[in-house]
Write a structure and sequence with these properties.
The protein contains 10 helices and 9 strands. The chain has about 300 residues and is α/β, with parallel strands linked by helices. The chain is globular and about 55 Å long.
Length: about 300
């Protein structure tokens, strides 16, 4: 039995295989329609979610399986004080695989140690979000055809952005990837990410507060929202929330084949007028997330 809590739980070869499976699902959906017949996915979401929860559910249904679970902590026995360990031990009596989101960093790891079935981390606080990273990787693969040799701009909340941290970890294993870190001074990438990942692996990166200045060199622009739920001080959130707003005029000097990504939800950091730009890939990301979650469920359930 195997769980996926961190994107680094998967080898580069395994990610390549998952992408190949996702590509095959896209090309031949009928082939996979009954692969998980009789299997049950439990979605344990202790924190609000739209895309991640619904894409897990859609993934399992499209594989012919069933879904049980809850969408907020208040509708579970956690509201009565039940521990994560007891919740997971209980749910693993009913389900074949668990997808879990929790506001506390490390909660899915604890769950995986107590569960009788595989656990997929669907996001834990500001820490990890491996299946969003799989969606990101499939998007880059289908738009660019490669991971090596890309200049990736990460813009917005780099301090608390778990999707940013997971994506850096994933891309750091490919050759000649360069990062441009674009954020307000208060929301820079944590020091441990710079020292333990970027510098330890001798990756090229630079930090800037100026999105437009960085734009011409980017192959990928990964926008993120400033996350109100990670702030202790409302005034700080209000001051920083509109630090970067991507509009068509800011794309005038961008590459013609730039890939614009966003893990969503957006709350104003990409203007709606950008949606019609052929370089906008964030809704493709949403769809690709479903296919990668289908591939991961198949892998962890060891379904041929």
């Amino acid at each position: 039995m195997r769980s996926v809590i961190d994107i680094l739980d998967l080898t580069v070869e395994e990610i390549t295989d998952l992408i190949a499976t996702a590509d095959d699902i896209i090309a031949n959906p009928a082939k996979y329609a009954e692969k998980c017949h009789g299997k049950k996915l439990a979605t344990l979401f202790f924190e609000p979610s739209t895309r991640t929860r619904l894409s897990f559910e859609a993934a399992m249904y499209e594989l012919g399986g069933h879904v049980i679970g809850f969408s907020e902590a208040q509708s579970s026995s956690a509201a009565k004080g039940e521990s994560i360990a007891d919740t997971v031990r209980t749910v693993s009596c009913y389900a074949d695989i668990i997808a879990m989101r929790h506001p506390k960093e490390g909660a899915p790891l604890v769950a995986s140690m107590k569960s009788g079935v595989p656990v997929i981390n669907a996001g834990d606080g500001g820490h990890n979000h491996p299946t969003q990273t799989l969606a990101d990787l499939l998007t880059i693969h289908r738009e660019k055809g490669r991971f090596s040799g890309l200049t990736v701009g990460l813009c917005g909340d780099l301090k608390f952005g778990r999707t940013v941290h997971s994506l850096i970890n994933a891309l750091s294993r490919y050759e000649d990837v360069r990062f441009v870190l674009i954020s307000p001074n208060e929301l820079v990438l944590p020091e441990y990410m710079k020292t333990e990942v970027l510098e330890r692996k001798n990756l090229t990166y630079r930090e800037t507060t100026d999105l437009e200045e960085a734009m011409p060199e980017l192959d990928i622009l990964y926008m993120t929202r400033v996350q109100r739920e990670r702030f202790f001080n409302e005034a700080d959130y209000i001051r920083l929330k509109d630090s970067y707003i991507l509009t068509p005029d800011k794309l005038l000097n961008a590459k013609s084949d730039l890939c614009i990504m966003h893990p969503l939800p957006r709350v104003g950091e990409i203007a709606g007028s950008v949606d019609d730009d052929p370089r906008a890939c964030y809704f493709k990301q949403v769809l690709y997330g479903k296919y990668m979650r289908m591939a991961l469920i198949l892998k962890l359930l060891e379904v041929a």
